[in-house]
Amino acid sequence: MPTAKIKYASDDGFAVRFTGREAWACYADNRWREISVTEAVCKCGVLTEQAYLEQFGHRHLPPLPDAAFCSGWRSPLV
User: Which residues of the chain have pLDDT under 50?
Assistant: First the structure.
């Protein structure tokens, strides 16, 4: 199964990355949290990759969790 292209967004100045299946946001505590894809698409301002890097590239964002954007089946209970 091909990996979905990751898209970028900003939620009130906080970094967001998402695909059509999952979304992650890094808020003030500098920790990534999974959010709904609907929230990422409808509430957050979608950015180009270049605009995302311009806005967040100078900040030290932590690495995404290992479970983020993993390929293959994942239990919805995890």
Answer: 1, 78
How do the domains of the chain map onto residue ranges? 1-78
Q: Pairing state of beta strands 45-47 and 32-35?
A: unpaired
Q: Find where tokens 């292209």 sit.
A: 5
Q: What are 57-69's pLDDT values in tens digits? A: 888 899 999 889 9
Prediction pTM value: 0.83
Asked if 12 and 56 count as a contact pair (C-beta separation under 8 A), the reply is no
Ordered DSSP codes for 22-61: -EEEE-TTS-EEEE-HHHHHHTSEEE-HHHHHHHHTTS-P
Helix H or strand E segment including 7: strand 7-11
